[in-house]
Amino acid sequence: MGEQAREREGTFIIRDLETLRVIADPIRNQILEVLQFTPQNTKEVADKLGLAPSKLYYHFNMLEKNGLIKVVETRQVSNLIEKYYQAVAIYFMVDSSLLNFESTEGKENMYTLVESSIDTTREDLMRSLHARSLQIEQGEAGKKRTMMLTRNLSNMSDEKAEEFIIRMRDLVEEFIDADTRDPNDQTFAITVAMYPSFYFRDLTKEQ
Asked: What is the C-alpha to C-alpha distance for residues 176 and 128, in angstroms, rounded to an integer?
């Protein structure tokens, strides 16, 4: 495994292909999100994700092996030792050197990262809608909350696009500040995608 950040409250930088492939799995991404702030065992995470613990053991092992989660506490329960895990950092980022169009591997890494983000968002959103529906069916009081899911296209200059990205990045950082986290607050997932949209075209007609 390559060099990686180890600061719990900082950012984990993924610098090698093996770790990128491990973190690209939607289930592992959701495990990391659950373990960001509170240490939990495999069963607790499985209950939150609506999965059997047996389906998570392999994913936990892969995450631990690659240094993405770690055991922070053990408890004796009957004749068993329960392990409590936590993510090694709050934020996870991929080193830009792994992402480029100059090599086949670089292209595949970019496709893998994009697919992972989209797949994780889809799985998390669908699970959230299902889980909330079950809660209300079981008698929990309903509470109106706003959900935003939108896709738009906009023509703008490179300068305006850069301005949008900078302002959006500042806004996201303002609202995901871990220091202001209240355990009584509802967790909200934020996925942002801003990119130049290209179309295939017959270049021979332009010659």
From this structure: 19
Instruction: Give the H/E segment covering residue 8.
Output: none
Among residues 55, 25, 30, 42, the alpha carbon closest in space to that of 124 is found at 30
Domains and CATH numbers, the chain: 11-141 (1.10.10.10)
Sign of torsion over alpha carbons 22, 24, 30, 34 = positive
The count of residues in the chain is 207
Tens digit of each residue's pLDDT (9 = 90 or more) over 110-144: 998 899 999 999 999 999 999 988 888 888 887 88
**Torsion, Cα of 26, 27, 28, 30 (10° steps):** 90
Q: Which residues pair with 83 in a beta bridge?
A: 74
pLDDT digits (tens, 9 = 90+) for 63-117: 999 999 999 999 988 888 899 999 999 888 889 888 888 889 889 999 988 999 9
How far apart CA 26 and CA 135 sit, in angstroms, is 24
Which amino acid is it at 79? Answer: N
